[in-house]
Amino acid sequence: MEVSTSIPTTLSQTYESQNVREFLTKKYGWKGEVDDIDWTVHQRALKAFPNSRRQTLIKFVHQWLPVNDHKGNQELSPGCPFCLDHNETQEHMLYCNNEHVKKCRTEEISKAIQRIRALRGDPALNQILIQAISSPRDTLETRVYPDRYATLIQNQNKIGWRQLLCGRITNEFVRHHDNYASLNKGTKLDGEQWATCVVKILWEAVLNIWHHRNEFVHEHAKQSDAHRQVIQDEVRRIYQLAPHIDPDDRQALSTPEEKVLAYKNKSMEDWVNRITPRVNQAIRRTHERTKRRTKAITHYFKSVSGPQNPPTTTGTRQRSQQVEQSKVNRTKLTVASFFRKAPKNDDKPP
Questions:
Q1: How far is 269 from 128, CA to CA, in rounded Å?
Q2: How far lies 173's CA from each of 54, 141, 156, in Å?
Q3: Which of 174, 179, 195, 314 could in theory staple to 41 by disulfide, Cβ–Cβ 3.0 to 4.6 A?
Q4: pLDDT tens digits, residue range 287-334?
Q5: pLDDT over 90 percentage in the chain
Q6: pLDDT at 109 > cutoff 80
Q7: What's the angle, vertex CA 15, arms to CA 13 and CA 20, rounded to 5?
Q8: Helix, strand or coil for residue 170?
Q9: Of 257, 268, 261, which is closest to residue 222 (Cα–Cα)?
Q10: Do the Cβ atoms of 321 and 291 come closer than 8 Å?
Q11: What residue ranges do the domains of the chain occupy?
Q12: What is the pLDDT of residue 337?
């Protein structure tokens, strides 16, 4: 039993795994098949891809790739962009009969078969995989292969052979390769490592087919009037930035705007991609120059440190003493007059 050093992560994965099992069981009508899948192989193969490609694979595994039949914008046509005869589901994207798709699929399957054979696994397992991925199928006949592989084929029949491309592989593959590796020293991979490599190879083929599809679809989209309007709006936005750039840096916009707007879509898009970084740098340089030339508001005021006592001289000291003395005399007179008795009436002179 493995002891995890990351307890919160392990608890979270354990808690969520039950929800995932219930979801998959309900979605595919499984019963106990979910327990026959080697989820360790699935997880390790997924972690082997960089984050950007991993996100695409997660969408593919859960049938959420943005194919035409599964786009959020329902106003777009769900039809296949290649054959134009069927709705473009994920499965149709992989097995469309259009010549471009067939050529790409054949090349990717051939490369995958070569790489699987290069792993030096059990030849019978290789043959089973080759037959499964060469064309879409739901089941394989157990009588075609030796009896010892009957349980493997039956388990994968229940899971579905189409699920191989989703990385859902029965743990019987791991067990059979371990048995083969123990008897043949030529293979250096154990069953789990071998199965992980197989899943990675299949997923790389799926990603390449998806990339080929996107190149075809978006290249045609770039020729549309709507795409041209988007590029032209970007060109106009760039020329509107000209007043914010110093004259010395406006050489990037020396080509007249009307001439750029008349370019073909590809040339105009290349111009935007080439000029945008130069314009952004020019604007930054203009801001830096403006900041250096601008004086702070404190520059226009003299600093005042507070009231200062004037220098003391002999005449000043004498005048201060005289003022203080006069204050004292006035105080004495006021006090004396307060206590002085008023004269009686009979004492007044006639």
A1: 48
A2: 24, 16, 10
A3: 195
A4: 888 878 776 666 666 666 555 555 555 566 666 677 677 766 666 555
A5: 36
A6: yes
A7: 80
A8: strand
A9: 268
A10: no
A11: 22-221, 225-294
A12: 56
Q: What is the pTM of this model?
A: 0.60
Q: What are the tokens at 336?
A: 């004396």
- The tokens describing 79, both together, are 């039809």
Residue that is written with structure tokens 């003395």 in the block:
325
**Structural tokens at position 134:** 């060469």
- Cβ atoms 272, 235 nearer than 8 A: yes
pLDDT of residue 11 exceeding 60, the answer is no
Q: By three-state DSSP, how is residue 191 classified?
A: helix
**Is the CB of residue 127 less than 8 Å from the CB of residue 180?**
no
Task: Report the C-alpha gap between 292 and 101 in whole angstroms.
Answer: 59
Token representation of residue 30: 């499984």
Residue that the structure tokens 């595919």 belong to? 28
Q: DSSP secondary-structure letter at 311?
A: P
d(CA 327, CA 332): 9
Distance between CA 46 and CA 57 in Å, rounded?
A: 8
CA distances (Å), origin 265, targets 211, 224, 254: 22, 9, 20
Question: Does the pLDDT at position 82 exceed 90?
Answer: no
Cβ atoms within 10 Å, residue 22: 11
What does DSSP assign to residue 37? Answer: B
